[in-house]
Amino acid sequence: MTENGVRNRQKNGKQSGKQNGVATHQEEKIQDEEFSVRESPLTSLLASSLHLRAIYHIFVVILLVLICDTVIFDLVESGKINIGLSIVAAGFGDVSRGIKLWLYDFCVVMSFYPLLVVYSWTGAISRKYPVLRPTVVLLGVIGIVAVEVAVAAVPVYELGKKHLELGSSVAVTCEMFRFMMKLVSVASACGPRCVNGNIPLPTFKHYVYFMFAPTLLYRDQYPRTKKIRWGLVVFHFMEVGAIVFYNCFLWERFIMPYWSDYGKEKTVEAGAVVRGMFACVLPGVISFLCGFYCVLHAWLNAWSEMLRFGDRLFYEDWWTTSRFSLYYRRWNRVVHSWLRDHIYLPLAPYFGRPLATFAVFFVSSIAHEVILALSFGFFYPVLLVEFGILGVIMVPLTATAGRRFPNVFNVIMWLGFFIGNGILWSLYPMEYFARRNCPPSENDSFFVPKSWSCPEVILKPNWSFQNPLSILFTK
Q: Along the 475 residues of the chain, how does pLDDT read in single tens digits?
């Protein structure tokens, strides 16, 4: 579909929605899924707003201050400078093993295209002999399931047997899920073509392009820009590198001092744990914002520019929302569009919107938890509880009230981000270091948190509660 055709289709869809009052699910899908040439929101805002550019500069200054802090600390303590390189090296340890796992997945994904061609031949036979069509369809389903299992099995087995360091394992597992989701998109778009024979299969070149394009929805054509701005590509990759160091500095200066010795002593005071959790709130939110900017803005925009991919609306202005339903839609449009097209819309007509929504949250939260479990080397469903349970509860609670009191509920949403990220940046490091520092036990398990039993959290000796208001009534 050409760019003008996309615009006309969107325009006609909007006019139809205005005439009917309420758009149907199919109309919403058509309006939302079409691609057009457009910039990311932060790209437009940074270009037009000096105020937002100043906030960007504030984050740059924070990074520079953290670098100076690290340099001075290293000079005073050890007489050498590593500028956080030791944390980066530790976080991305055993890169060669991670690359091998990625290459395995890539080879499996590339082998799917010739299988698709073979399947189209069997589809041609089924058109001559209609009695074979159910068998051919069943073979197609079995084939895509087998390929999906092949993509996931080896990385899951290898990381389960011996996990990589955190950065490398996150990259491997995220790429594993990305390939699996793209294969589903290709299969759902091209499978019916193989059976019906009404539309030809994509070329291998376009298939490879889709595997690297910053989208999870397959289309025969995407809007393309006229040229590649290599300076912009370099700038975005420099941002990615800077944010990696940014998070390493946060880990080294705010996480390590509080949690690196967790488990070395048999007991720990509850006050120290609470102080550590609150100390992790601010670095947790900064890391949350940096992670969003790194992946959904800098990384995807760099690949978009290299591939001349025109549609760069990877997210929307989620930071202004007062309803959690809008936040989940705007936070990551790339994944949200895939979940909508391949889980929500197929299930909603048969099982209803509430159950389809629950299925979306369930699949998404499980995927996030698998990534964290394989990355850390243990199962600790903190994110699953925050995202898959509390997040689901907040959707109906903010549906009406968020419209009536947008400012209040935007504050509540940000309060949830602060508290939630502080908890994540506390509980996961506590469990991580408890498994490293606590002595081995026969009760150790991948699924049972060790930080619950080692060390023992106790109150401060001779601790007692004193009413702070009692001073007003004395004398």
A: 433 443 444 444 444 443 333 333 443 343 445 788 999 999 999 989 898 889 889 988 988 887 887 778 777 777 777 666 777 777 787 888 989 999 999 999 999 999 999 999 988 888 888 888 888 889 999 999 999 999 999 999 998 888 788 888 889 999 999 999 999 999 999 988 888 878 888 999 999 999 999 999 999 999 999 999 999 999 999 999 988 888 888 888 888 888 888 988 888 888 888 888 898 898 889 889 999 999 999 999 999 999 999 999 999 999 999 998 889 889 999 999 999 999 999 999 999 888 898 889 888 888 888 888 888 888 898 888 888 788 888 888 888 888 889 899 999 999 988 999 989 999 999 999 999 899 888 878 888 888 888 888 887 777 776 666 665 555 5
**pTM to 2 decimal places:** 0.85
Q: Hey, which residues does 224 pair with through a beta bridge? A: 309
Cβ contacts of 145 within 8 Å, gap of 6 or more = none
Q: Which residues contact 168 (CB under 8 A, 6 or more apart)?
A: 91, 92, 93, 94, 95, 97, 98
What gap in Å lies between CA 6 and CA 27, rounded to an integer? 14
Which residues are catalytically annotated?
368
Q: Domain-by-domain residue ranges, the chain?
A: 84-212, 242-475
